[in-house]
Amino acid sequence: MIRQEVLDSRTVEGCKQLWQKLIVDQQHRITVYEKDDVIFGFLDGYLNPEQTIAEIRAFYLLKEIHGQGIGRAMFEQFYQSLQPDQYSILRLGVLNKNLSRYFYEKMGGI
C-alpha cells in the first residue's frame, strides 16, 4: 500500500503529465473502464523490451464495480495482447495485506 503522505503529495498536474507520457509510450498498454464519461478503473501494463517479462504496474477498480467481471475482462485483455513468443512471464507484485491478491490468485497468480 502506498503511504498516505505520498498520495497527499501528488498533484493533478503531476499525474496528468505522467499519464500523458504513459499513453503514448509504446511499451505501455493502458486499459480504462469508463461508463457515462466516468472512469471506474484502469490497468497499466508494461512490455519490457529487454526481457521476456511483461508487468502489470497498476490495476485499480472502484469497489462499487467489483464482482461484475470487469476486472477479469481487463486482465484477460492485457494478457491476450501479449505475444507468447516474446513474453513468457506476466508479473504483478502485490502486498499480502492487499485483499486484491485473492483476485490475482484466482487469475492464476502465485
UniProtKB/TrEMBL annotation:
Protein's name according to its UniProt entry: GNAT family N-acetyltransferase
Lineage: Bacteria, Pseudomonadati, Pseudomonadota, Gammaproteobacteria, Moraxellales
CDD domains: NAT_SF
Residues that span the membrane, as ranges: none
InterPro entries referenced in this protein's UniProt entry, alphabetically: Acyl_CoA_acyltransferase, GNAT_dom
UniProtKB keywords: Transferase
GO molecular-function terms, A-Z: acyltransferase activity, transferring groups other than amino-acyl groups
Keyword set includes NAD: no
Domain N-acetyltransferase: from-to ranges: 1-110
